[in-house]
UniProtKB/TrEMBL annotation:
Molecular-function annotations in GO: acyl-CoA dehydrogenase activity; flavin adenine dinucleotide binding
Cofactor: FAD
Highest taxon of the lineage: Bacteria
Protein name: Putative acyl-CoA dehydrogenase FadE10
Signal sequence bounds: none
Enzyme class: oxidoreductase
Organism: Streptomyces glaucescens
Acyl-CoA dehydrogenase/oxidase N-terminal domain span: 62-167
Reactions it catalyzes: a 2,3-saturated acyl-CoA + A = a 2,3-dehydroacyl-CoA + AH2
Residue ranges of every copy of the Acyl-CoA dehydrogenase/oxidase C-terminal domain listed in the record: 280-438
GO-annotated cellular components: cytoplasm
Amino acid sequence: MSATPTTRPTVTEREARQVAEAAREQHWRKPSFAKELFLGRFRLDLIHPHPLPADEDVRRGEAFLAKLRAFCETGIDSARIEREARIPDETVAGLRELGALGMKIDPEYGGLGLTQVYYNKALALVGSASPAVGALLSAHQSIGVPQPLKMFGTPEQKQRFLPRCARTDISAFLLTEPDVGSDPARLATTAVPDGDDYLLDGVKLWTTNGVVADLLVVMARVPKTQGHKGGITAFVVEASSPGITVENRNAFMGLRGLENGVTRFQGVRVPAANRIGPEGAGLKIALTTLNTGRLSLPAMCVGAGKWCLKIAREWSAAREQWGKPVALHEAVGSKIAFIAATTFALEAVVDLSSQMADEDRNDIRIEAALAKLYGSETACLMADELVQIRGGRGFETAESLAARGERAVPAEQMLRDLRINRIFEGSTEIMHLLIAREAVDAHLSVAGDLIDPDKSLQDKAKAGAQAGVFYAKWLPRLIAGPGQLPRSYAEFRHAGVDLSPHLRHVERTARKLARSTFYAMSRWQGRMETKQGFLGRIVDIGAELFAMSAACVRAELLRSQGDHGREAYQLADAFCHQARLRVDALFTRLWDNTDDLDRKVVKGVLAGTYEWLEHGVVDPSGDGPWIADTRTPETPRPDVRRTIPE
């Protein structure tokens, strides 16, 4: 039996970036609204009129949602999941019977074949009943076995595994390791070729669904040898294979029912037929899968926003203070308005991105990443505001509220459950960098060699000529546009509300954003990648502009359909006014900030300069290393894997 590796690949910062760069999609074969937005081009024609699902997709999707709603109301006991810190077997059995494990799997393989739009609506519904159940379904289908096989699997692999995933088997995705997060170049888990098999060794951390999974997607490094290209590679692994041990079921501040653990592989034999794609394609497969897979998380954030709005409305109308409902006090009312407007905009972002994913006419890698970033951040803010609106009752647990005779509203649980979304599937900080890289791709394509220290003078001269041609055409277009014409976007004036000024603002601001990005690249050149504070603000501005655009387009769609059009226009108007204030503040902070001072303070903290400031407290932390030792323990740990009966 092979031994678990004790050393990790040693890579430089530059090598780590090269690995990440090689894994991303290099070309833009389809148009992208968000990419154009960051380049200063407001392509409203790419999202308006709002794309719509086919009638048959709507019929099938609504029929399933009706069944799912009935199950959520009777078959999911959120309080029990919170209390017992696990999803009951009968709940999983009910999901299997409904076909919920196969929502995104093609009917050819026994799945329901729902569109991305209705899959996300289903996750929003389930997530409102129990975020832990929503996470189980999302991890299984968005990043687990079904999605990468759908996109990259062979016909034989699809026939073998997809019917199981659609009906009975739960899947998980295993990439993270105790010392490897968003820098996969240092991945230590190995898959060593051995005849027609690979021998898998290593330890994976935070394996969502890993405690109960039947099938795993595992990322491992194949050594480069004769006949083997090597590199990070994806495999489908049977969770019951000899040599696999779930060493721990992890517990978190929220999502107490999450079946997330630590999984050890020791000489696990995996057939070469279970490899997804060629050797070395694992990271590309993972990132491509996440292009649409990321939409599941903001979809559940939409569900959270809707629930926060419902509770805020009902509570603020019932609770009186100083002679009137608390909702009518401006300090509370502004919070309710924020929740209502943001929920409307976030649903607009998710539905628009999902429909574009279904139509496959646009490249939505930036849109999906923006939806994940924006949804995870705003949902936390909405839940926090709900806790504040509820006051002491917001901080009190639902169980305690019920014990003393009041409605068991789990506001504090919602806040705890949502907090992980700012870390899941790419932290906010990583999402800023990922989106920023895509946003400046056009610049790097024409001028990247100019700032690359490894390029020759000849290469730099060639890049300079290419850049000159590109910028001679591009820069003049950033001076003026439809946003300066008072009659532009006049079709967005209805029901006494005029959204056209907001769209003109988006068009003008997109050009300003592009000019700011170009100026920063000219100023910092090769150091641009180190200006993470600046890049984060650039991305946040783009996210607000995307949300404003989506909100206006959705309002017009609802108006044209006669479905709450007047109210939709009011919500879109409120959201855009709120967003414009945030955008103004972000632009100010592009150039007027404390980034340089912060860097000095950080260096001082790390050097111990301010260690005296820590005096006067005790540290209740336990003993142990900051990062777990992944070597095989002398005394094997018990396997805590739980099999959910069919």
